[in-house]
Write a structure and sequence with these properties.
It is a single chain. About 45% of the residues are buried. The strands form three sheets. A six-stranded mixed β-sheet has the order 3-2-4-11-5-12, sandwiched between helices. A five-stranded mixed β-sheet has the order 8-7-9-6-10, with helices on both faces. It has a two-stranded antiparallel sheet with strand order 1-13. By secondary structure, it is an alpha/beta fold.
């Protein structure tokens, strides 16, 4: 069955009135994407950033299927693929970006430093972990002063989870901070598996799976163990001006995301064809990764309060603020059951991209 013949029985109640921001409106000077023509006069523009990695799979489906564009025919939608959260933050500060996806800790650090943005949706949960190829490194207490731990960047979710694990096991959150090496995920994996430069790598899918499949590697600590429970890995973040001025765009993002997650869960064959090209993985391998314990795609958001409490206590955050201040009012929309939907939506035909590539969160 082709995707264009599939009727989607999934939608999201969008409480647009509760999503407004309290900040004054500002104009964004968006640069046109090479993949899209210049918007017509008076046409609104929505610029969305994605990153690399399996946790962002619904976004790649959204982009390839044109799901967001179908929800916002009055908008010119531009997609940007950026390498890390710092690039997203800089683009938002410069007014070149309206929404992006990232881990919760770097979002909180930006909010703490005055970034006018809030979380408007969850995207994914994922298994994260510290992997080592050295037999003697079985616990955090085994790491010596000359051992090096690769992770994406200070303040990343991997860094904060490592700090949580250090507090639990060593009694000091920053015990291993002087042994960190900043590397994107591909470089970190290559360094670990080649035995050059690092003793361990705190990473995420698909790199976690690939590293654990290599001979002689093992998991030192998982993200869930470090956190002490479940948490959302990647969330969607929007500028206050977008939340305040364009609630219809936020609603469209949520609906398109719900459709992409539905496809991922129910139309596996076609989705694997698309994503295997994106990630450069065999379809059978990719299917196993998607079914890996802990991989979950959802708009629900978990763990924000725990991150705030820990990061404030350890001075990663300077100011005090509540969960309610960082979440848009309808960040957890009520999902309708399939048999309750008033109408269905037909999806466009799947278009398989030849692009691939991986980077950090």
């Amino acid at each position: 069955m082709r995707l264009k013949d599939i009727t989607i029985l999934l939608a999201v109640l969008v409480l647009a009135g509760s999503c407004g921001g309290s900040e004054p409106a500002s104009e964004s000077d968006h640069q046109a994407s090479k993949e899209h023509p210049s918007p017509q006069k008076n046409q609104k523009t929505l610029v969305v950033a994605e990153q690399y990695g399996l946790a962002y799979a619904p976004l790649q489906i959204m982009r390839a299927q044109g799901l967001l564009e179908a929800e916002l025919p009055e908008y010119e939608v531009e997609w940007r693929r950026l390498g890390n959260t710092a690039a997203i933050r800089e683009a938002m500060l410069a007014g070149r970006l309206d929404a992006g996806f990232m881990g919760i800790p770097p979002f909180l650090i930006g909010y703490d430093r005055g970034m006018e943005w809030r979380i408007f949706t969850g995207l994914s949960e994922a298994p994260l972990g510290l992997v080592s190829g050295e037999e003697g490194l079985r616990s955090l207490a085994d790491f010596e002063p000359d051992d090096r731990i690769a992770l994406p960047q200070p303040g990343s979710i991997q860094h904060i989870l490592l700090s949580m694990a250090c507090e639990r096991e060593l009694g000091q959150a920053r015990a291993l901070d002087d042994r960190l090496v900043t590397m994107n995920h591909p470089d970190g994996m290559n360094a670990l598996l080649s035995g050059r430069g690092v003793s361990a790598h705190f990473t995420s899918p698909p790199y976690l799976m690939e590293e654990l499949a290599a001979k002689g590697t093992h998991l030192v600590v998982s993200g869930r163990e470090a956190m002490g429970g479940d948490f959302t890995f990647i969330v969607g973040v929007a500028t206050n001006s977008l939340l305040q001025e364009s609630p219809e765009a936020i609603g469209a993002l949520r609906r398109a995301l719900a459709q992409a997650v539905y496809l991922l869960e129910n139309e596996r064959e076609q989705v694997l064809e698309l994503l295997s090209s994106e990630y450069g993985l065999e379809q059978e391998t990719l299917s196993g990764y998607l079914d890996w314990e802990g991989m979950k795609y959802s708009q629900q958001v978990a763990g924000v309060e725990r991150f705030i409490e820990f990061m404030r206590a350890q001075d990663y955050l300077e100011s005090s603020f509540s969960v309610g201040q960082v979440l848009a009012g309808c960040v957890q929309p009520q999902e309708l059951q399939a048999n309750e939907l008033p109408e269905s939506k037909e999806l466009p035909e799947l278009q398989v991209s030849g692009q691939g590539g991986t980077d950090d969160d």
